[in-house]
Amino acid sequence: MENINHIIKGCIHKEPKYQRLLYDRYRGFACKVVFRYIYRYEKAIDIVTDGFVKAFNHFDNFKMREGDDTEKLLMGWLKRIMINCSIDELRHSNMLPEIGGIPEDVWEITDKYDDADQLILYKDLISLIKELPPNYHVVFNLYVLDGYSHSQIAEMMNISISTSRSSLSRAKALVQKLIKNMEEGKLCRI
Is 69 left (phi over 0), alpha (psi -120 to 50) or beta? Predict the structure, then answer.
């Protein structure tokens, strides 16, 4: 297995071998980030590909620092690129609700940070978020799952900070209601 620093240096020099290694290693991670925003499988895969192309074209912007966990920095940088590509696509489609589901085999894309329990909880959470209105699910994802501030969300989505806050509040209330309904449904089936 190649050292991450060698892969990064190869990507900075635009060497296809290292670009492929990076893509293969982080494709699952990137897919999971994009699937939180884009629910149509084919479109999500296109966005992941576009995101990696952008990363490879701008790898000289990635800064490694001594003493830092290079892999975490890289994953944060890739995550930001994938989120921005997803938001651009949603903005391009006027935040229209996505139709269709994500095929079950997508959840089997390996990510070295997964374990079985987390994967089940993640799938359930994504399924619940998918039921939210489009603007709510984007704000919820950005704030709760990806850690953006309301001012960053407002800038990304071209909305006011108060709109971001109220969308998050309404999204949380709807998620709580959906969880309650889901739990009541499970209790009834016993």
Answer: beta
Q: Where in the chain is the domain with CATH 1.10.1740.10?
A: 1-101
**Alpha helices (runs of H) in 13-69, residue ranges in sequence order:** 16-35, 41-57
Contacts of the segment 6-11: beta carbons below 8 A, 24+ positions apart:
8/59, 8/62, 8/64, 8/70, 8/74, 11/55, 11/56, 11/59
- Top pLDDT among 125 and 138 is at 138
pLDDT digits (tens, 9 = 90+) for 129-169: 888 888 898 999 899 888 999 999 999 888 999 999 999 99
CATH number 3.90.550.10 is the correct assignment for the domain at 1-101: no
- What CATH number does the domain located at 113-190 have? 1.10.10.10
How far, in Å, CA of 61 to CA of 89, rounded? Answer: 23
State the Cα torsion 71-75-81-87 to the nearest 10°: -170
Distances (CA, A) of 120 to 35, 72, 107, 175: 15, 24, 9, 17
164 touches 154 (CB < 8 A): yes
Give this prediction's pTM: 0.76
